[in-house]
Recover the amino acids of this structure.
């Protein structure tokens, strides 16, 4: 019997694996690649006397961001699944499949993403009037280098979008169908919040950068406000919605335990009253201790967290939204003053 055929590795997975094999940390590899891309972009234009548009510089700086976001999202996904594993319950046999879907991209969807990215580049070049950094009067070298960077950006962005959708669907499936989620075992509650935080950052940062650079060159428009508002909304949705399932389950579990404790408290209180009324002083201390324990249990239930993220993660998310928003507002104000 022949061995099972090994699935083809997608191009994003191959690139991420190759970067992991390098002696430097991945973030440093992406940083160096970004600096090289920006340096080539600016250097070619300075050499040819071409005016440098900050917006196109911003797009160039984003060349490798989607791939970097996929890289670190995959790492966060692997850690999240391991942290959540004790709560999988009947989903435990699916562990390997869940890990594969969270941390890798299938071959053919990656090919389709690449074709979509290439199509966006072609359409954008013919409809944006040179705003993508390529013009007939520029040298072939400048246009080719710009096209390569735009192609990498659009291909990897399309792949990132597909992969993000899959990751969100897997998180929803896990939170819906896991059978060992316990109210008092808190680590699995917020296991996936770091992953959704990475995805939210990957959405809001590039839009913030482009909008901030645009604000320095032009007046604030309704279109710019709408685009930025949509990006902010998507960032919030990607962070919050995949975690809403476990939040609902934890609230239901807390309500159930609170009701059970309340019923037990009522029974113990009735027994204590009956003991006092009948003069059964011997059983009164035990019943009093039971009531004290049940009251403490109720207090614990009131204070147990049912939020699917830690305080640090939530602060990180608010900061991720708040700082770019403040910078965007200030650059719009500065753009009005200067221009």
């Amino acid at each position: 019997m022949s061995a099972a055929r090994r699935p083809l590795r997608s191009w994003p997975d191959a690139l991420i694996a190759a970067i992991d094999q390098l002696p430097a940390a991945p973030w440093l590899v992406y940083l160096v690649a970004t600096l090289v891309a920006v340096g080539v972009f600016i250097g070619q234009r300075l050499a040819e006397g071409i005016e440098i548009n900050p917006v196109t510089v911003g797009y160039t700086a984003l060349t490798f961001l989607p791939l970097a976001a996929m890289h670190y999202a995959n790492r966060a996904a692997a850690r999240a699944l391991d942290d959540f594993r004790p709560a999988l319950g009947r989903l435990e046999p699916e562990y390997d499949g869940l890990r594969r879907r969270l941390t890798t991209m299938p071959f053919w969807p990656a090919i389709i993403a690449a074709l979509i990215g290439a199509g966006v580049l072609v359409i954008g070049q013919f409809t944006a009037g040179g705003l993508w950094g390529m013009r007939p009067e520029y040298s072939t070298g400048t246009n080719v280098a710009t096209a390569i960077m735009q192609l990498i950006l659009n291909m990897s962005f399309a792949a990132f979008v597909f992969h993000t959708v899959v990751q969100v669907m897997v998180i929803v499936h896990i939170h819906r169908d896991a059978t060992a989620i316990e109210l008092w075992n808190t680590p699995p509650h917020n296991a996936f919040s770091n992953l959704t935080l990475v995805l939210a950052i990957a959405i809001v940062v590039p839009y913030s950068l482009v909008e901030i650079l645009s604000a320095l060159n032009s007046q604030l428009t309704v279109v710019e406000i709408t685009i930025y508002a949509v990006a902010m909304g998507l960032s919030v949705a990607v962070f919050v919605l995949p975690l809403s399932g476990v939040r609902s389950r934890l609230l239901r579990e807390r309500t159930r335990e609170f009701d059970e404790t309340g019923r037990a408290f009522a029974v113990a209180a009735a027994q204590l009253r009956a003991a006092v009324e009948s003069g059964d002083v011997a059983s009164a201390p035990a019943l009093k201790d039971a009531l004290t324990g049940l009251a403490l249990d109720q207090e614990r239930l009131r204070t147990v967290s049912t939020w699917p993220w830690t305080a640090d993660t939530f602060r990180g998310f608010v900061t991720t939204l708040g700082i770019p928003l403040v910078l965007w507002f200030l650059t719009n104000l500065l753009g009005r003053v200067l221009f």
